[in-house]
Amino acid sequence: MFALRRRGAASLLQAKTLPTFQAVTRPTFAQAFVSSAYRAQRQYSTQEEDNKDRKDKDEKKTPPTMQEYMRLPEFRNSLIISAVAAFLFAFNNRPTEENLFTFQDFKVRYLEKGLVSSITVDNNSHVRAELLPGTNGPHGGFPVCHFDIGSVNIFEEQLNAMQDKLGIPQSDRVPVKYTRTTPLMAYVMPFVPTVLFIGGLVYLNKKMGMMGKGGGGPGGMFSMNKSKAKLFNQETDIKVKFKDVAGCNESKEEIMEFVHFLKDPAKFERLGAKIPRGAVLSGPPGTGKTLLAKATAGEAGVPFLSVSGSEFVEMFVGVGASRVRDLFKQARSMAPSIIFIDEIDAIGKKRGGGGGMGGNDEKEATLNQILVEMDGFDTNDHVIVLAGTNRADILDPALLRPGRFDRHVYLDRPDIEGRKAIFHVHIGKLKLKVKDEPNAADVIDRLCGKLAALTPGFAGADVANCCNEAALIAARLECNSVEFKHFELAIERVIAGLEKKSKILSKEERTTVAYHEAGHAVCGWFLEYADPLLKVSIIPRGQGALGYAQYLPPDQYLVSQEQFRHKMVMALGGRVSEELHFASVTSGASDDFKKVTQMAKSMVLSYGMSPKVGEICYDTQDQQGFKINKPFSQKTGQTIDLEIKRIIDEAYSDCTLLLKEKIALVDIVAKELLAKEVITRDDMVRLLGQRPFVEKNDAFNKYIGGGLTVDESQKSAPPAPEDAPKV
Ligand SMILES: Nc1ncnc2c1ncn2[C@@H]1O[C@H](COP(=O)(O)OP(=O)(O)OP(=O)(O)O)[C@@H](O)[C@H]1O
Ligand SMILES: [Zn+2]
Fold first, then answer.
1. Which fold has domain 233-350+362-410?
2. Which of 287, 390, 425 for mutating ligand 1's site (highest number of atoms within 8 Å of CB)?
3. Contact 280, 395 (CB under 8 A)
4. CATH 1.10.8.60 in the chain, residues?
5. Higher model confidence: residue 533 or residue 237?
6. What average pLDDT does the segment 293-317 reach?
7. Residue nearest ligand 1's atom 15 by CA
8. Among the ranges 74-88, 220-234, 556-570, 646-660, which has the highest mean pLDDT value?
9. What is the distance in A from the centroid of ligand 2 to the CA of 570?
10. Calpha distance 410→601 (Å, rounded)
11. Binding site membership of 342 for ligand 1 (Cβ less than 6 Å)
């Protein structure tokens, strides 16, 4: 209670004598900084001295550079400490007894005695009073004093009252000036966000610039309008020649024309010939489009500017078009040259189709700019534009008009001879065991042929990948050179993914998988148009496959109705075998059903193989690959459904018939599979006898079946147990 009253009185008192004063003597930040820096320097020199003592006393030390100095941890620590100290000083430094100077003191010591010459009130809160010269002021004897006040009105009142009391006439009264100063920070603060923003931008730009350098192109936000094309210099970078692009001789011939032109443009111009501006290289992924474009530049010995269509598209409007301008400008400056735009479908899709969600305009603008640039070429510009795409069918027709990309070079997946040639290219870079043998060339040729036969459907990139994978496997197995078995493993890996031996199947699951796979294998063995089987395995592999069988489909362009039927019967072999051997079936056949349904659907909808539906093609997808409404009546729809079902049902009953007949053989194969996990074609021949047909795959006969015809090979193998059933 008592304490409370005292405090109340004190605050009252303070309210009355409001103008109080705090004479603050703050050690400045600069002082703190200097002292810490000094400390750091001392530490630095001590450390240096230690080192010197330890190492070589006579060695002359070079003084540290500013950068080295600032990188010292001590320097940084002391910087932080002094910053914190300065902060604490600035905000926590309470006035002490000595430097507390109040308005009361000012009145008593100077005002009443008439020692004040002028008064300045700053920001209505701080008073600075000039004293008469020679007066001993409170702050170190200077004739000046300052203190804080709470209210200007009260201060003025008291000042006037005092001077009234002293009887000072109005004319002699101490002049009072009012000023308003803004603290430095108040000026600086508004600029801080701007400075930070610009600083951030510059920093980002530098970072992007560095990434750009790594990626081979100019980066940075301020160079956004610059083309991101990667430049390959003809002397240093482009070592690719036509001989490195194997298996696509027609495409090479077509593109050869550009090479001739770039090498000797005058020859063509003399005759008034207009050289095509560009060519679209299309084909499935990995078939060597980029490689062929590069080889064209390599053969012609001109610079090669490579850019991907998607690199034109940014979130900012107009960037694409200006990148195109920049790209062509760059190409013209180094003409003759080749521009290669990969994935041109990213910007070159048919225009005006609508349906795009924003960004379409930007793509159109970019595409338009490409067209404008190509039109704007003078024939003596000698810049050729090649474009790569997997989807030539969706390109804007304007792109393909004469005078633009008027040549169309199609690169298909290679056939067996093509793959053999590509294997030759990539095997040349490997350390092969057979290379040391006397007839190495023949052996390698045969090896390449065999590998080509084993890799139906592989594109050039898959072949390259397979060769590299074989070398990696050889290295992993600590071998000194790459052998055929490494290629075999690599092919399997490329086709089916890595073996997952860690995936443990239960005993029941393993049995089911074995009978399922045996069902497929036995079915295929006795069906004339089923592809030759190479290997069956029940070791789980990547992509969720529990069992796996390797077949060798021939390079084939037409499929007959009979072939479809045999393929379907074989695909259903897994499920039927499960039905025949177990009380219940499993989910393992879903992939087989997908294949079967797809085949039956195509037969009915596209290939005219259903008498009820007739010779009609119902396309249910538009050119862009989107599903479109069914283009047939409901009644036709029902007929189609019934026909698809009929075809599958017939295949199913054929399959059941066949497997019921061969059930003992399925048992034998399944047991062998369970025992060995993997069985090869030789095992199958041993267990089931030769297939009762001539293999339909020429490649197989030439490279894998050892060149033997069935008749010859049957002399040395056990005869087929039964004749092929008619299914
Ligand atoms: N015909 C070929 N001869 C030799 N190597 C090839 C051939 N085709 C592809 N390759 C190999 O495959 C790699 C990839 O090929 P490339 O990048 O040219 O394919 P792409 O058709 O441009 O693929 P994408 O359509 O995916 O861009 C090449 O670097 C090369 O090693
Ligand atoms: Zn299956």
1. Rossmann fold (3.40.50)
2. 287
3. yes
4. 416-495
5. 533
6. 79
7. 288
8. 646-660
9. 9
10. 28
11. yes
**Which residue ranges does the chain devote to CATH 3.40.1690.20?**
103-184
Per residue, what are the HEC states of 571-589?
Answer: HHHHHHHHHHHCCCCCHHH
246 lines ligand 1 (CB under 6 A): yes
What are the strands of the beta sheet with 116-122, ordered from one edge? 144-148, 126-131, 116-122, 176-179
Q: Are 697 and 531 in contact (CB under 8 A)?
A: yes
CB neighbour class for 89 (10 Å; exposed up to 12, middle 13-18, buried from 19): middle
Query: Using an 8 Å Cβ cutoff, are 400 and 408 in contact?
Result: yes
ipTM over 0.90: yes
pLDDT given at position 362: 74
Summarised one tens digit per residue, pLDDT across range 259-291 is 888 888 778 778 877 777 888 888 888 888 888
| Residue range(s) occupied by CATH 3.40.50.300 in the chain | 233-350+362-410
Q: 575 CA to middle of ligand 2, Å? A: 7
CB-based contact 533:682 (threshold 8 Å): no
Is residue 470 within 8 Å of residue 430, measured between CB atoms? yes
The CATH architecture annotation of domain 103-184 reads 3-Layer(aba) Sandwich (3.40)
CATH fold for the domain made of 416-495:
Helicase, Ruva Protein; domain 3 (1.10.8)
> Is 489 near ligand 1, meaning CB less than 6 Å away?
no
* Probe residue for ligand 1, chosen from 243, 250, 291 as the CB with the greatest number of ligand atoms within 8 Å: 291
Q: Counting runs of H as helices and runs of E as strands, what totals does the chain give?
A: 26, 13
Active site residue 364: no
CB 518 within 8 A of CB 662: no
Give the Cα separation of 335 and 587 in Å (integer). 62
DSSP state of 501: T
Choice among 517, 643, 672, 695 that is catalytic: 517
Query: From ligand 1's centre to the CA of 470, what distance in Å?
Result: 18
Specify the CATH number for 507-619+632-704; select among 3.30.420.40, 1.20.58.760, 1.10.10.10, 1.20.840.10: 1.20.58.760
